[in-house]
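Inputs:
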Amino acid sequence: MTVSIKSEIAGIVETLEKSVGDTVSQGDELIILSSMKMEIPILATVSGRIKEYAVAEGDMVSEDQLLVVIEA
Amino acid sequence: MTEKNDERPDLKAVLEARAALQDDARPEAVAKQKGRGRWTARQALAAIVDEGSFVEYGGLARPVIDGMSGPADGLVMGTAKVGGQAVDIVLYDYTVYGGSQSYINHHKITRMFAHAEELRLPVICWLDGGGARPQDGSPGRRLTPETFVVFARLSGLVPTVGIVPSRAFAGHANLAGMCDCLIGIKGSAIGLGGPPLVAAAMGKRLAPEEIGPIDMHAKSGVVDLVAEDETDAIELAKRYLSYFAPWRGEVIEPDTSVLRTVVPENRRRAYDVRKAIEHICDVGSVLELRRDFGKAIMTTFARIGGRTVGVIANQPMHLAGSIDTPASDKAARFTQICDAFDIPVLLLCDTPGLMVGPDAEKTGLVRHSARLLVALANARAPIMTVVLRKAYGLGFYIMGSQALRPAVLLAWPTAEYGGMGLEGAVEIAHGRELEQIADAEERDRRRQELLGAMQHAGSAIETAARFVYDDVIDPATTRDVLKLTLDTLANRDGDTKRRRFIEPF
């Protein structure tokens, strides 16, 4: 099963905290977004393996935009 | 009761008429409803009320038009207990003319709402239908039912909960729009004008789910809770009502040590305030309302030591916790609900202030943010404040500052206080001085120095020294301190003369 994680906010991708293929646990930080001068951590909603990062560092993202796909 | 007594013709007729109302006497209608994948009104009723507690009103009512028939004229209603709490319950029955509002069932529901007003009973509405029954609209019959006005008068007097299992349009949507708490099941739809009206006005044929889908309403703030299915919706309705009655269940203590690490050490790092709420309140007691609307503020009912509190918390994960128009509206209305039912309000403050910029102003933020302040300033329910991190400007003023005379005003060690955001404050107070420094590196160093001084002045301890807070506490003790504070509020006299309605939005 794959799980898509979308952004709830608009912002800029500051850092990708993991790489494609990494194993992650629920609650792990996957991406740090920067929005309103704050760092917003995007957390893994499930445990699994990162299948895809749909964004790169420096990208602008909008609300509801796909960020990460996890193979649960 | 003996067999013989059963056979008296007068009694027999009544027993038969009563039996005919039940689902097992109507296999065809029930099968049709099942075929739609949906519950009957009586099935829902049985799942909502405590077993054996229901007393039906108007069960023997039937359609006013000759030749039409339908059990209870399409509205099942009566008194019952739900989780031990007495309620009035009304359920539109889709198997009777599509759950339509008829001449007779308008009288019925008005009777039930007036009954709730008289006896101060919470009301549960199962809203399954699309407004008026056309056949009943003939001349000579009253066309202005009291239904909606009587229901409107319950606002702020008794808690009202609506469940939309499938479609609520026209009159059913009017009722939905007035419920304190509105629950929609996934895939359901709500709208004032159904497909025929939309077609007539806009020349476009749309399905109900295209006009008012529930996921849209979750974002627009129309529905408070979205349920997976009927069972989930009923469970949510029961949970919602549980906050308005003394808690008889168990109290599970949360791990409060977690509170020490909820706020990250890195000032710029956001965190989910939900975690703070979950570790201050009784385990499993938290119910978040309007999750997908006004996300910069969370509004939740919860319990602390078994006592209901309404928690209003800035959400740093969204807009850094800046208060925008939807968040203002959401928090203002939630305050009104708490105030109407004397539920203490717990404000968890972490806001850089009100949202700024032309886009925010365009939404009418001047008025909407004022609405939140007016609601809190006029609330007679007690307010308790905990500053988790940012307490800046008008944002903090609204989120439980001294001026609102909270029962207690606490701060965590991470609290930051200031008349405005510090970065901006440095520019305003020292802009000229900074401008005159030619070397960019030197200018930056000076800026950081000034910022550091302001941060120190706004730190929890320095701010407490100027008595902005009643106390700065170990976050792990937050729950205990709030419990003790709630104990001091126990004998507060309610103002029984007060009568305020809750704004529907």
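Residues 2-71 of chain A form a domain with the OB fold (Dihydrolipoamide Acetyltransferase, E2P) fold (CATH 2.40.50.100). Flag for discussion at group meeting.
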